[in-house]
């Protein structure tokens, strides 16, 4: 039963990111480059490192890491995303990055064969985050480093539940946003010593956030997600820090825009 549900989740991920491959790729290049700069410093990336980027998507993180490492392979479930990544690698004349179909829960590399294992914004899409962290640890040599970037939930379960409810209406491929305490526990359980953890807040408009998920104002998913987000403006239960912004023109007339924040955690760890 678990495998069947995992397969269904993989189908949801492929469907979501096939629909949004082009818009997703064009919207994150600058953001991922800046984030790669931070993460590369945290994991002490060097030009002798061989690395893997799990759930690589359009390859933004892998391509940003490529000048800093000897070689990097980006793995992803979605062919449409990998096509964008391969095109971007050709356009940038990057020769030390490869991209291939691959499952983050079954990394196709031997034990203790890599120096770096990276993933960004993937744990909240996978069926089993613990298994992904275990796989990252497995493929690393002793002293190898893990780097993770992802959104995270507050420790209050009520906040996490509302956060996930909003995320799932926006994007059915969302599974669960982990609190930082659970991320730390998963690392420790797999022999990974956390060496650095940082939090950043990324301001975004609600419409931008919905657009990257392939949702437009006329879509039922957009309408319901906005309703849920507006319901948290007074108490910020889902921790998106939403507030009304400027009045905007829409197909149905004028409306108030919504400004919000995605809170992101960067984690670096070393395999003992």
SSE arrangement:
Elements lengths: L1 H18 L1 H22 L7 E5 L5 H6 L5 E6 L2 H13 L5 E5 L12 E7 L8 H11 E12 L5 H14 L9 H10 L2 E14 H6 L8 H12 L11 E8 L2 E19 L1
Parallel strand pairs: 1-2, 1-4, 2-3, 4-5
Antiparallel strand pairs: 5-8, 6-8, 7-8
Helix pairs in contact: 6-9
Summarize the biggest pleated sheet: 8 strands, mixed
Any idea what the CATH superfamily of the largest domain is called? Vaccinia Virus protein VP39
* DSSP E strands, number: 8
Fill in the CATH topology of the largest domain.
Rossmann fold
Write a structural description:
With 272 residues, this protein is of the alpha/beta class. It folds into two domains: 2-153 and 172-202 and 263-271, 3-Layer(aba) Sandwich (Rossmann fold); 204-259, no CATH class. It is built from nine helices and eight strands. Strands 1, 2, 3, 4, 5, 6, 7 and 8 form an eight-stranded mixed beta sheet that branches. β2 (71-76), α4 (79-91) and β3 (97-101) form a beta-alpha-beta unit. The chain is globular and about 55 Å long. The relative contact order is 0.14. The mean pLDDT is 91.
């Amino acid at each position: 039963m678990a495998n069947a549900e995992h397969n269904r989740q993989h189908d949801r991920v492929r469907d979501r990111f096939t629909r949004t491959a082009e818009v997703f790729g064009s919207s994150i290049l600058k953001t991922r480059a800046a984030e790669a700069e931070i993460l590369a410093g945290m994991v002490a990336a060097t030009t002798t490192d061989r690395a893997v980027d799990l759930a690589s998507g359009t390859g933004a993180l892998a391509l940003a890491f490529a000048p800093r490492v000897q070689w990097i392979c980006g793995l992803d479930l979605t062919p449409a995303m990998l096509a964008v990544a391969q095109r971007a690698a050709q356009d940038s004349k990057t020769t030390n990055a490869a991209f291939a179909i691959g499952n983050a829960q079954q990394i196709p590399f031997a034990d203790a064969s890599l120096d770096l294992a990276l993933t960004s914004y993937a744990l909240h899409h996978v069926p089993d985050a613990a298994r992904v962290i275990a796989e990252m640890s497995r493929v690393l040599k002793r002293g190898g480093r893990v780097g993770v970037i992802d959104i995270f939930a507050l420790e209050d379960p009520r906040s996490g539940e509302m956060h996930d409810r909003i995320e799932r209406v926006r994007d059915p491929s969302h599974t669960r946003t982990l609190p930082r305490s659970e991320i730390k526990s998963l690392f420790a359980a797999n022999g990974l010593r956390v060496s650095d953890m940082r939090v950043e807040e990324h301001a975004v408009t609600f419409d931008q956030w919905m657009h990257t998920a392939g949702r437009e104002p006329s879509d039922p998913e957009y309408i319901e997600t906005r309703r849920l987000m507006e319901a948290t403006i007074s108490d910020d239960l889902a921790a998106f820090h939403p507030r009304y912004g400027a009045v905007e023109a829409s197909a149905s007339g004028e409306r108030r825009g919504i400004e919000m924040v995605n809170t992101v955690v960067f984690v670096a760890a070393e395999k003992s």
